[in-house]
Amino acid sequence: MEIIQGGVTAAKGFKAAGMNAGIKNKTKKDMAMIFSEKPCVTAGTFTTNKVFAAPVKWDKNIVYNSKYSQAVVINSGVANACTGEEGDNACLREAQAVSKALGIPENSVLVASTGVIGMQLPMDTMVAGINALPSVLADTQEAGTQAAEAIMTTDTRSKQVAVTVDIKGKKVTVGGMCKGAGMIHPNMATMLCFITSDANIEKSALQKMTSAIVDDSFNMISVDGDTSTNDTVLVMANGMAENECIKENTPEYDEYFKALSYILTELSKMIAGDGEGCTCLFEVKVINAKERQQARTLAKSIVTSSLTKAAIFGHDANWGRILCAMGYSGADFEPEKVDIYFESSAGKLKIVENGKATDYSEEEATKILSQNPVTAIADVKQGDVNATAWGCDLTFDYVKINADYRS
User: Fold this and answer.
1) 61 and 174 together in one domain
2) Is the dihedral of CA 305, 308, 312, 314 positive or negative?
3) Which residues, 6+ apart, have CB-to-CB distance to 332 below 8 Å?
4) Which of the ends of the chain has fewer CB neighbours closer than 10 A, N or C?
5) Per the omega criterion (within 30 degrees of 0), is the bond before 373 cis?
6) Which HAMAP family match (predicted)?
7) What residues make up the domain containing 299?
């Protein structure tokens, strides 16, 4: 596998565009489009919030019931969530407009929205934007970046990654972009992710690996504990690499799995590290657990603890908050066996051994916790299963950003 520059335009046959359509204001990009020259097998995972947005309903139907997709149109500024029948009709109008503009079937068009909940989409503005986007579609890295910028809300930077992998002598490319900085606690926040690939792969195989990888990537990040109404991960593969079709239970499946896993994990970490107001990515590793669910539960409990996140912001080695978060997680473990470490580019320090503080240096701990990223490691000494979760520190700016989000 080789890491390359780019995002959604890295794979063969994919074009993208981002522009200002006037949804937010007259200056910021707020609409993006992704288009494949050929139809794509498509997989997806979606929010488990029972209050889910109209685009989630639309995309579920396309992913589960259409043979293929060929385009995605995304807007930022308005989430099209809690908008009733009018919101559903807006998705249909978007698909109809894209169908006409690109000459593809309505049921091959995916839609996505992010922004303020409860507002109706300005459909005249949306349709005008959809009609304008095809003329600026391009397969360049710059076009991919413009699309990645157009889907941002409170993100401070665009998020893109791409790789190539050899599948039986054919170079297969996978690229992606995502957005998300707040309302992030996916259970597939407002989190959107779009992956493009020129792989030739069975739809069932793509869905199986996507669901499995999302569970260990996006489902293991948290910024603020809020699961959004719009969480969506879409993976499109158009087969233009002309590799032998990837099927389940084959070496080729395993190779492609590694590439897609890298993409989704890196994008997950980019979201966690760009949490609203944060100053660092906070990684939590639970090691030597007896079972997978135990390790996952403990890791997520630590990474979502507001007190722990605040301590990370203050560069304070307050390990009691970590042990406390493990204790209320609901997972069974033996506190008197737990070792805890802090690690960063400044070094690694054991601060707890067998449930009690070591004679560690507070000065050294502060130095370690002053870096970005910071990792906490909890060794529960009960087996050989590990899990990793990602989050960020909790800062004053998080409250400021969300206190006036709508204004």
Assistant:
1) yes
2) positive
3) 294
4) C
5) yes
6) ArgJ
7) 281-403
Residues 256 and 245: their CA atoms lie apart, in Å, by 11
- 227 known ligand binder: no
Same-domain check for residues 323 and 373: yes
**Residues 46 and 76 occupy one common structural domain:** yes
For residues 202 and 110, state if they share a domain: yes
179 assigned to a ligand binding site: yes
pLDDT tens digits for 3-53? 999 999 999 999 999 999 999 887 899 999 999 999 999 999 998 778 889
Contact 56, 48 (CB under 8 A): no
Q: Check whether 276 is labelled as a binding-site residue.
A: yes
Q: Positive or negative CA dihedral for 116, 119, 125, 127?
A: positive
The lowest-confidence range among 60-69, 132-141, 187-196, 266-275 is 187-196
Q: Are residues 345 and 374 in the same domain?
A: yes
The residues carrying an active-site annotation are: 190
Position 188 scores a pLDDT of 38
Residue 265 assigned ligand-binding role: no
Q: What is the CATH number of the domain that holds 266?
A: 3.60.70.12
